[in-house]
Each structure stands twice: as structure tokens, then as C-alpha cells.
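Supplementary Methods, section 5.1.

A reviewer requested that the exact input to the structure prediction be made available. We therefore reproduce it here, unchanged from the version used in the analyses.
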Amino acid sequence: MLRSTIAFVTCVTAATAFGQTPPSDAQVAAYQGLHKAAHEGNVAGIEATVSSGADVNAQDNAGRTPAHVAAFASQDAALAALADAGADLNLLEYQLYDVVTIAAVANDPDLVKLAIELGNRPDLTTSIYDGTALIAAAHLGHHEVVGILIDAGAPLDHVNNLEWTALIEAVILSNGGPDHVTTVKHLVDAGADQTIGDRYGVTPLQHAKTLGYAEIAALLEAVAN
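The structure derived from this sequence is encoded cell-by-cell as follows.
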């Protein structure tokens, strides 16, 4: 079963490299109105355009609202202005990402906090993998973001359509380094259920031992015993 899991992980790791797609240079150059102002962080432009009757949740050809564009450009003030004007931060673009998940993947803790404060739910199911922002951040070892999402009430044990939890992803998609070690610590300290195995029944601890991630295995064993 471990051999089957490793082969599956190799395929998925290659596929997940093509997750989020920020606006291309050509798309940015073509932006007008709120999308342009959001990308540039132009708060005055946002306020003026909204006052003229623009749809604050209008989508570009990839389903991105101005809020998504602000998130991809890490424009905190623009995001706040859009939310103040009524933008729905829980909307998903065509690749099924919300603002929080975009910020989580970008490892932007300040933007993650802000989006949650502005009403973006941390428990949304996002991405083609039916995951969450927490799973995305755990996969990448973005431990500060993981801590923020846990504190905000993100579901610890959500299982995506790959049959992986945040804890499983933090082990099998990691390199065993300090960022993923801290990520695993956040998850186990918060009470993540390490008895949930992958589609083959292999647990996070078994994966950590097989991969030679001694520090992660030690963390998991300390909680299990």
C-alpha cells in the first residue's frame, strides 16, 4: 500500500503545481475600472468607480472579481475598500479559489487575517480538489498561515477528494524541513486527527516514518502515546 501511495503522491505533486493562476500580464494590461484599480491598489479609484455604479463583484474571463485580483496582487487596502463597498470575498473564481485560499497559497499572513476579518469564511471548500485554505497552506508548509486559519476555526480534519487531510498533506507533500515540522506541530497541538489515513489507510505517522521525517514522526508519536 505504501508503494501505491508514493506513486499516487508523485502524480498529484506534479498536478498541483498548476493550481492557482494569477492574472497574466496581458489580462492586467486589459483591465479597466475596478479590476484595474484593485490590481494597482488604487483605493480612491475603487471608491470613485463604485460610486459611479460599477458592479463590485464583476468577473473577468477567468471568473476573478476585483477582490480576487486584489488578493493576487497583495493589495490589502484595496481589498478592504472593496469589502467596504460590498464585495463578497467568499465568491470562487473559475479555478474555485476564494480570497483566503489565494492569500494562504501566497504565504501572506496579513492578507489572510484581513480577509477573515472582512468576512471571508475560513471553512470554505475550495479548489478542484475540494480542499480548504488550511489544506493548501499545510501542503506548502506555510505554518504562520496555518496557525491563523486554525485560530479562525478552519476545519482541522476536512478530507479532500484525494482523500487527504491537512495533516496528511503536511507530511506527504513536504520535504520534512522546519516549515513543515512547525506546520505539523500546529495541527497536532490543535487536535488534528492523525488516525485518519489516506485512501490506502496509511496514516500520517506511517508516512513520516517511511519518508524518513524523524522530527515529524516524533511529534506524531508524542501525541499518539
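DSSP finds 14 helices and no strands in the chain. These observations are discussed further in the main text.
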